[in-house]
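Figure 2 data, in text form.
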Amino acid sequence: MPTPRSAEGSRWKFAIIAIPYLWLIAFLLVPFGLILKISLSDQARARPPYLPQFDWNSGLTAFLRDLDFENFAVLASDFFYGRSYLQSVQIAAIGTVLVLLVAYPLAYGLTRAPPRWRSFLFTLVILPFWTSFLVRIYAWMIILKPNGFLDMGGQLLGLSPGTLALLNSTWAVLIGIVYSYLPFMVLPLYTTLDKIDGTFCEAARDLGASAARCFVTIIIPLSLPGVMAGSLLVFIPMVGEFVIPELLGGVGSAMIGKTLWTEFFNNQDWPLSAAIAIGMLVILFVPIVLLQRVQVAAAMNETGAGGGAQRHFSRINKMSVILGLAFIYLPILLVIAFSFNDSRLVTIWGGFSLKWYGTLFQNTQLLDSAWLSFKLACLSATIATVLGVLAALTLVRFRIFFGKALFNFLLMVPIIMPGMIIGLALLLFFVAIGLPRGFYTLLLSHATFGMCFVAVIVQARLANFDRSLEEAAIDLGSSSLQTFRYVTLPLIFPSILSGWALAFVLSLDDLIISSLTTGPNATTLPMRIFSQVRLGVTPEINAASTLMFLAVVLCLGLGMMAQSRKSSKLKGTNP
């Protein structure tokens, strides 16, 4: 017969596992199943615009008999869709190689930097990930447009006007991809390179090897796990990219994410859109499986930071870091500088002025969208944090339970899957259950993808948690809830706060999923800015982008200061 304490533990275990698991099933697994079902349906003038729809009177047999593979036959036979898939994979592959070529010397240079500067420099590289994705892409529109900064620089060098106007070209898309996905590649590379023992190269140098040979024969082979993880991490979402080709690629861009968007919104062909999404999943299946295996292998081979010989911060390393930071921050700084431009011409300086900020604060539509986005981000981040903490506890504390592999996969999906697929799945789900699209569908959608990011952050902290403190509390008579509240929660709270902040920023910045799951009366700030940016570059958008960037930087700065003060107090209390 179970004791009261064991019965209490079983109830808590069931609740901790069931709550995030059921949420993921309801808002990820079921919507993906619905995408598959609709991809086998036919377009119709109905609400929703596809047939067949399940009818209890007709039964399951009649429903299944009306499903067919006609949409997949269209995708296979129509050259336009084949070209879209091929171009998406091609651009994603080229973009991955280019990101790797930029990120590798930058990440290696960061690991060579003096310890007192390393964390600061790494934070500078990762910081843009926390800022608005739309602002970063918009910055390149200003640089690459005709008579933009790059074109004007070419004219100063004697080139004819328009020679370096790369906007609305494949080159512009590739530049935007490299710029946007650079932090995703730097992070796994930095982690892997930082763990390489410096004594390996020192021994090779003692045996007569040159610095270049040490790099080629030792550093590169040992860093291949980071190369593989980073490459897969950027390639998978690149395939379904929509915003970058839409803003930088122009009308000629035919990546599959843009094709799906056109079929769904312009042509109102939901079944064909669902089939396109299924085709994307088929293409990404192998990379997703490979990424899971790479992550599992990395977790099993986890070691401490590299040590041994002192690292040399060479001139090449310094130049790599300087050029990398210039590439990251120059576009953003140009947007900020020209938000104070008196001239309406974005790239022509007409004197210092604050008038565009005044114009911005008179734009009631933009302010209403900003307030809605702020409320949405606060609420969704809070829900995501609760669900993410429960999910992290499930993964770390309960090694074996039914369906753990599925649970792991569902948690990983929103992190690596193109947002277009996630948004489409949720939209079809909300329509199927008859939930009106608006603020609450946005809230459910943002909480769903936010909880996965929170789970990853909290899971990393729980994995290194000293459980003897909890065991001591239980031995002294504390219940499971009391132990978590007074022992576990305070110790993992910094990671929970970081997870909340990340979920907040992701919600505040989301465009694709929001555009698919919102209604006419719930327009978020990124959606509002995106609609205006598509019409052209304006000084008001410079001002709005600057405020968005500075708000995120301010929040991050305050969070880092609070964390630093807390760490200082903890060090001061230790003997």
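Caption note: The CA atoms of residues 484 and 548 lie 36 Å apart.
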